[in-house]
Every structure is written in structure tokens, then in C-alpha cells.
């Protein structure tokens, strides 16, 4: 597929790669191989303006994955192993996206975390990933610093195994919000 520019500002805030509905379905996860040794996992959304055979990325996504407009990339389906690849905890570095729009207002980090989970539920994340987050009408630049896997026994309704959360920086993770 050919890398392109994200078609709308709204889609740039989703942290998803954008494809034609003729190629993939919204919500699928894909591996994007940029070079023989570099691959990245993205969750996709579809949009009618993206040409078949193209995959569009936001500026932070292109920067993180080292992608150029028009670059040919290899795209394949990616399926998460829910027993090992659900996020239990994630450490994120946050800053104002545009330094000229900084302010000293306090932000409720609990509300910010809840909004993050709501906006990015069921999405792929990787350590070092860069993305944009909209909160309280402000744009923030985020960098994923650390991810810990969730104890999968919790998903089955079993008591927690008591194992220490596993830090797995080399595996891709999917954010799952448990109600």
C-alpha cells in the first residue's frame, strides 16, 4: 500500500490509520512494515476519500513510524493474543501539542485518563508511539513510555493470579476498557 496524509483533522485525533472501505474494515488491526526490520501495529478506520491501495497517517504517526508521503509499505492483518496482549497499565508522557497554546490551568488527571480510555478503547499501542489527544478543547502530544500487560485471568472472571504485571516493551498492546 502507499502511505498518505490523513484526510481530516478529526480522523488525525483518532490515533488510527485510515484506509478505503474496499481494503479493510474499521476496527481491524494491521501491521505496517516500513523496512525489513521495522514494523508498527495500527488500528484502522475507513474513510471514503482514501483511495483503495492507500493507507493514510496523521503527522505524529508518520513521525513515529518514519513514514513519508507516497512511501510503499507492506500491510497485513494483525490479531492480538488477548491472553497476553491487553494493557493493564500504560505510562504516557504528555505535553501541549503547540507550545504557544500552553496554559497554567490545572487539569483533572482522573478525568483525562477516563477520556483517554473512552477515546482510544480497543486500539493498538506500542512503547515510543506518538499520538495527539484532545481534552478540554486543547490538543496534547502524547508519547507512550511504558506498557504493562494485564493479568488475563481477570478477563475470564477468575481471581487475579498474583503475578507481578509483565513489562513487555517489544509486544504491541491493545487498550481494553473493562466495565
Write up this protein.
It is a single chain. The chain is mainly beta. The protein contains three helices and eleven strands. The strands form three sheets. The chain has a six-stranded mixed sheet. A three-stranded antiparallel sheet has the order 7-10-9. It has a two-stranded antiparallel ribbon with strand order 8-11. Its EC number is 3.6.4.6. Homohexamer. Interacts with GABARAP and GABARAPL2. Interacts with GRIA2. Interacts with PLK2, leading to disrupt the interaction with GRIA2. Interacts with MUSK; may regulate MUSK endocytosis and activity. Interacts with CDK16.
Q: SSE layout and pairings?
A:
Layout: E1 2-5, H1 9-12, E2 17-19, E3 29-35, E4 38-46, E5 54-57, H2 59-65, E6 74-77, E7 87-96, H3 109-119, E8 124-125, E9 130-135, E10 138-149, E11 173-174
Parallel strand pairs: 1-5, 2-4
Antiparallel strand pairs: 2-5, 3-4, 3-6, 7-10, 8-11, 9-10
Family: Belongs to the AAA ATPase family.
InterPro entries: Asp_de-COase-like_dom_sf, Cdc48_dom2, CDC48_domain_2-like_sf, CDC4_N-term_subdom, Vesicle-fus_ATPase
Cofactor: Mg(2+)
Structural descriptors:
3-stranded antiparallel sheet, globular, 3 helices, Vcp-like ATPase, Chain A, domain 2, Barwin-like endoglucanases, mainly beta, 6-stranded mixed sheet, 2 domains, 179 residues, 11 strands
Amino acid at each position: 500500500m502507499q502511505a498518505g496524509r490523513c484526510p481530516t483533522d478529526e480522523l488525525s485525533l483518532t490515533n488510527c490509520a485510515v484506509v478505503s472501505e474496499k481494503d479493510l474494515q474499521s476496527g481491524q488491526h494491521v501491521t505496517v512494515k516500513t523496512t525489513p526490520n521495522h514494523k508498527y501495529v495500527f488500528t484502522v478506520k475507513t474513510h471514503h476519500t482514501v483511495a483503495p491501495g492507500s493507507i493514510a497517517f496523521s503527522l505524529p504517526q508518520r513521525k513515529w513510524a518514519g513514514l513519508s508521503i507516497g512511501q510503499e509499505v507492506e500491510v497485513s492483518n494483525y490479531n492480538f493474543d488477548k491472553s497476553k496482549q491487553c494493557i493493564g497499565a500504560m505510562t504516557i508522557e504528555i505535553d501541549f501539542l503547540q507550545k504557544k497554546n500552553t496554559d497554567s490551568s490545572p487539569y483533572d488527571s482522573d478525568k483525562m485518563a477516563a477520556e483517554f480510555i473512552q477515546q482510544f478503547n480497543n486500539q493498538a499501542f506500542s512503547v515510543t508511539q506518538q499520538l495527539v489527544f484532545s481534552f478540554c478543547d486543547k490538543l496534547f502530544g502524547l508519547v507512550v513510555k511504558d506498557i504493562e500487560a494485564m493479568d488475563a485471568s481477570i478477563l475470564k472472571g477468575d481471581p487475579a493470579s498474583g503475578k507481578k504485571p509483565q513489562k513487555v516493551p517489544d509486544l504491541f498492546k491493545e487498550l481494553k476498557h473493562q466495565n
